[in-house]
Design a protein that fits this description.
This protein is of the alpha/beta class. The chain is 33% helix and 28% strand. A six-stranded mixed sheet has the order 6-7-8-3-9-10, sandwiched between helices. A four-stranded antiparallel sheet has the order 2-1-4-5. It is globular, with a radius of gyration of 17 Å. The structure holds adenosine-5'-diphosphate (2 copies). The site of one adenosine-5'-diphosphate has 6 residues, from helix 5. One adenosine-5'-diphosphate binds next to helix 5. Keywords: Amino-acid transport, ATP-binding, Cell membrane, Membrane, Nucleotide-binding, Translocase, Transport.
Length: 232
């Protein structure tokens, strides 16, 4: 599903070159819940953002679903990105739009068939347990609810891959479990491959089947895991 090969991202900091990600090779299989862990500044987020080319690698190739994204034209890349959903630590909802409109806008941007957008939006909101909140604004929801809206928005266009950047880092332990259980349901019931970046080992151990440990931009080790479960 994902093959990152010798991927490097170099930034210029204080007039010197600095490798935020340094010659990383990882392989994510279809159906994986793949974790990337490491301390702050290790390069996790940069690595994740190179999977959908939100960051352009300085070197290396990024093959997703058989396509090398670094070789695509702008138009081809926009199309390829439509099968990659993403969620963030701070949810990134549009605050002056309702929950329903947040999801509808995503479907519109993805060129989802116009006549089916409303039905699909309600369907994904139901999937994350929020259809009764469709008319509310993000500020009227709890953190856990906001992240569930962000998840609904990310899966609305039926992506094969969901990228999660510290998805539970601003949530309390109970809400964290609730979000992890939604992510696992998306993996198991919808067959979506998931990559989760986190600095919390408990989060990774509860649902991931593989974890890559990063430090200083490099892969320290990749280990197979037997997911421990979410306490349910
Ligand atoms: P993590 O997600 O593991 O906390 P990041 O990928 O966010 O790490 O950052 C890795 C390193 O790259 C950090 O030292 C960060 O300061 C640096 N970095 C990230 N983005 C930029 C940027 N746009 N310009 C310069 N340095 C950056
Ligand atoms: P969750 O179980 O998703 O974390 P909570 O138990 O925190 O939800 O919230 C319960 C209810 O309180 C929700 O219906 C939500 O709309 C409302 N609520 C939570 N936080 C806020 C807030 N900051 N402002 C307004 N309403 C809130």
């Amino acid at each position: 599903m994902i093959e990152l090969t010798n991927v490097t991202k170099t930034y210029i900091q204080h007039k010197t070159k600095f490798h935020a990600v340094d010659n990383v090779t990882i392989s994510v299989k279809n159906g994986d819940i793949y974790g990337v862990i490491g301390r702050s500044g290790a390069g996790k987020s940069t690595l994740l953002r190179m999977i959908n080319l939100l960051e352009i690698p300085t070197k290396g190739s990024v093959v997703v679903d058989g396509q090398d994204l670094t070789q695509l034209t702008g138009k081809q890349l926009r199309l390829a990105r439509q099968s990659i959903g993403m969620i963030f630590q701070h949810f990134n909802l549009v605050s002056n739009k309702t929950i329903l409109d947040n999801v509808l806008v995503a479907l519109e941007l993805a060129n989802y068939p116009k006549k089916e957008r409303m039905e699909r939006a309600l369907e994904v909101l139901r999937f994350v347990g929020l259809e009764d909140h469709a008319a509310k604004y993000p500020s009227q929801l709890s953190g856990g609810q906001k992240q569930r809206v962000a998840i609904a928005r990310a899966i609305a266009n039926k992506p094969k891959l969901l990228l999660c950047d510290e998805p539970t880092s601003s949530l309390d332990p109970n809400t964290t479990r609730e979000i992890l259980s939604v992510l696992r349901k998306i993996n198991q019931e919808l067959g979506v491959t998931i990559v989760i970046v986190s600095h919390e080992m408990d989060v990774i151990k509860s649902i991931c089947n593989l974890v890559t440990i990063m430090d200083n931009g490099k892969v320290y080790e990749t280990i197979g895991l037997k997911p421990e479960g979410i306490g349910d």
